[in-house]
Design brief:
The structure is a single chain. By secondary structure, the chain is α+β, with helices and mostly antiparallel strands. Among the domains are: 12-80; 159-309, no CATH class. It has helices at 4-53, 57-76, and strands at 92-95, 101-109, 115-125, 130-137, 160-169, 172-181, 187-198, 201-204, 218-223, 230-246, 253-274, 286-298, 301-305, 308-309. The strands form 3 sheets. Strands 5, 6, 7, 8 and 9 form a 5-stranded antiparallel β-sheet that branches. A 5-stranded antiparallel β-sheet has the order 13-12-11-10-14, with no helix packed on it. A 4-stranded antiparallel β-sheet has the order 1-2-3-4, covered by helices on one side. A hairpin with a 2-residue loop joins strand 5 (160-169) and strand 6 (172-181). The chain is globular, with a radius of gyration of 26 Å.
Length: 333
Amino acid sequence: MKHPATAVRLRKILCASLFSFFIFHFSFCSAQDKALMQSYQSRLSALIERVAAAPTDNERYLASEEAIQLLSKALDEEDSEKWKWQLPSYASVLTSPDGLLRIFTWAVIRDNGEFECFGAIQFYNEREEEYEYLLLHDKSDEIMNREETVLSADQWLGAVYQEIIQTTASGHTYYTLLGWNGVDNITERKIIEPVTFRNGIPQFGAPLFRRMRNQRRIVLEYTNDAMVNLSYETQYVQQVEKKREKVKGTNRYQTVDVVKEHKEKMIIFDEVEAQVPGMEGLFQYYVPSGVELAYAWSDGKWELRNGAQGRLKDKKLNKDFSPLPKTAPAYKF
């Protein structure tokens, strides 16, 4: 029969051993998981470099397909949503401030200058109470009524996203993406793309633009020789207020317009229009009109602000994009 003190010592030793085992085990798993995700990141980065720099269409598409397959495996890993991705600047990885939405996008540029976008969206499915992902399939050429149609991951208006904006209203969370697509040698486009959830699954496009009943997204398409700004930043807005004032030297009053300015966080962009009458709808003739437009979030909608003035120097994009190597067609963000 063991002495009570000896039994107590044995129990302490056993507890300490078990504690050490669990600490070692979980530390090892954590290090192992980190090493695995680091491996995925390194291999994916190399593939993205090939997407950008490979000399032929076939090689670029093959690299992109391999990147999709590898990314799918990485996103299948448990807790993959916690990994902080660092990929080459030819690809975009954006995560919402609440961590519930992440989107990966990049483009393959064909020898003829045409763009096709690829990527994946990872999201928290509240119904299933777990993170899931969907691959994105660029169907830009097949989508009619681009500004009015709600789209899915399988029917996606391709873009390389540059900014993710999270807003809330009445207990609901909304996400808005700012994106770019090089399209071809004639035009390019920029997109304001709301993302909402239906039955736990993300959908692209939503009626969040006040006073534009059927508009689900904003699409700016224009000649690829033009420079068109699209950014989310704090800038000035001019507002015209009516004021009654006495007419000097008389007893009469008149109503005058008083222009006031205030700063506001908003999506600011250049209005585009056809260079000459009769070219409406032919986007290779569209250029900035010289007017800046802006949307500010107000009561659950993006409300148009007239008189936007993009004068402040602010961070234009959430993620900077580098030009591609000279061995491949150049991105123009």
